[in-house]
């Protein structure tokens, strides 16, 4: 089965709900049905804009997916400041980014936490985008593969084979995020291939063959085509460039470049 590419805009902590509406409108003017047919296109605004974007997507019948950037694993309770999977599902959120390196580095999320989030997302019929990736120090010390495999094992703990069709993995080398320094396509392809191979070892070859693995880290209009050319890269998780409607639309139209 051919894997449908998936391009996700991770807006991080940018755009209040009004700016978010404007950005989605500007993006939708620039895209046409062929773009949505070629790739699954998703935007992940901050929590405060999810409801507004859900309404816009429904009202204008946009074939755009809605993503969230984080979630807590409990369903409800005394967890001040947290947002539950059920709350996201009620807003028709389709994808939830789990274990982004900024959350791991700044908010202390470890592999066990990330695994809890992935399982909670799946339990609510949403799709996790499990982020993995090594730091520059780890890469230079030759530890990149081990780090990524540990993150995969923690993030996928308890995930059943039958659920793997809903899992997306994003390989995001930390040294490439927000730095303007993109991984070389062959390096991105190599690690995405290692990820696929590991999933094949843990599950089976068919699951690995269907798994969608994104690359993330300074994806721009200038480098998207060469990344998408890679055999193991099935899409992109885009930060900075997803805030510019021209740039993000160009990235979404990678098949025309
Ligand atoms: P960037 O961010 O495209 O700004 O490097 C990617 C990400 O963090 O998902």
The CATH superfamily is: Aldolase class I
Q: How does the helix and strand content classify structurally? A: alpha/beta
Largest sheet: 8 strands, parallel, barrel
Ligands, ions, cofactors: 2-phosphoglycolic acid
User: What is the CATH class name?
Assistant: Alpha Beta
Give the beta-strand count: 8
**Roughly what is the average pLDDT, rounded to an integer?**
97
CATH fold field value: TIM Barrel
Helical element count?
A: 12
Describe the structure.
This protein is α/β, with parallel strands linked by helices and about 260 residues long. The chain is built from twelve helices and eight strands. It has helices at about 15-30, 35-40, 45-60, 85-90, 100-105, 110-125, 135-140, 145-155, 185-200, 205-210, 225-230, 245-250, and strands spanning about 5-10, 40-45, 65-70, 95-100, 125-130, 170, 210-215, 235-240. Strands 1-2-3-4-5-6-7-8 form an eight-stranded parallel beta barrel, surrounded by five helices. Helix 1 crosses helix 3 and helix 1 crosses helix 12 (about 245-250). The model has no long low-confidence stretch (mean pLDDT about 95). It binds 2-phosphoglycolic acid. 2-phosphoglycolic acid (PGA) binds near residues 10 and 216.
Describe the secondary structure blueprint for this structure.
Elements: E1 6-10, H1 17-30, H2 33-38, E2 40-44, H3 47-59, E3 65-68, H4 85-90, E4 95-98, H5 101-106, H6 111-123, E5 127-132, H7 136-140, H8 144-155, E6 168-171, H9 185-202, H10 205-210, E7 212-216, H11 224-228, E8 235-238, H12 245-252
Parallel strand pairs: 1-2, 1-8, 2-3, 3-4, 4-5, 5-6, 6-7, 7-8
This protein binds 2-phosphoglycolic acid (PGA).
């Amino acid at each position: 089965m051919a894997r449908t590419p998936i391009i996700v805009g991770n807006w991080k902590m940018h755009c209040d709900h009004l700016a978010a509406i404007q950005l989605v409108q500007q993006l939708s003017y620039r895209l046409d049905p062929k773009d949505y047919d070629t790739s699954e296109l998703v935007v992940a605004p901050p929590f405060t804009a999810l409801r507004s974007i859900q309404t816009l997507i429904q009202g204008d019948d946009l074939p755009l997916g809605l993503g969230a950037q984080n979630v807590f694993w409990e369903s409800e309770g005394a967890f001040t400041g947290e947002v539950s999977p059920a709350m996201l599902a009620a807003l028709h959120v389709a994808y939830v980014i789990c274990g982004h390196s900024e959350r791991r580095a700044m908010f202390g999320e470890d592999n066990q936490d990330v695994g809890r989030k992935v399982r909670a997302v799946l339990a609510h019929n949403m799709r996790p985008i499990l982020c993995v990736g090594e730091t520059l120090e780890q890469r230079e010390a030759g530890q990149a593969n081990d780090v990524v495999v540990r993150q995969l094992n923690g993030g996928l703990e308890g995930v059943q084979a039958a659920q793997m069709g809903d899992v997306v993995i994003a390989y995001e080398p930390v040294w490439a995020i927000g730095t303007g320094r993109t991984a070389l396509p062959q390096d991105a392809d190599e690690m995405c291939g290692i990820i696929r191979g590991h999933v094949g070892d843990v599950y089976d070859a068919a699951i690995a063959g269907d798994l969608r693995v994104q690359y993330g880290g300074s994806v721009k209009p200038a480098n998207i085509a060469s990344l998408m050319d890679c055999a193991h890269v099935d899409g992109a998780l885009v930060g900075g460039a997803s805030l510019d409607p021209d740039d993000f639309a160009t990235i979404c139209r990678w098949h025309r470049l």
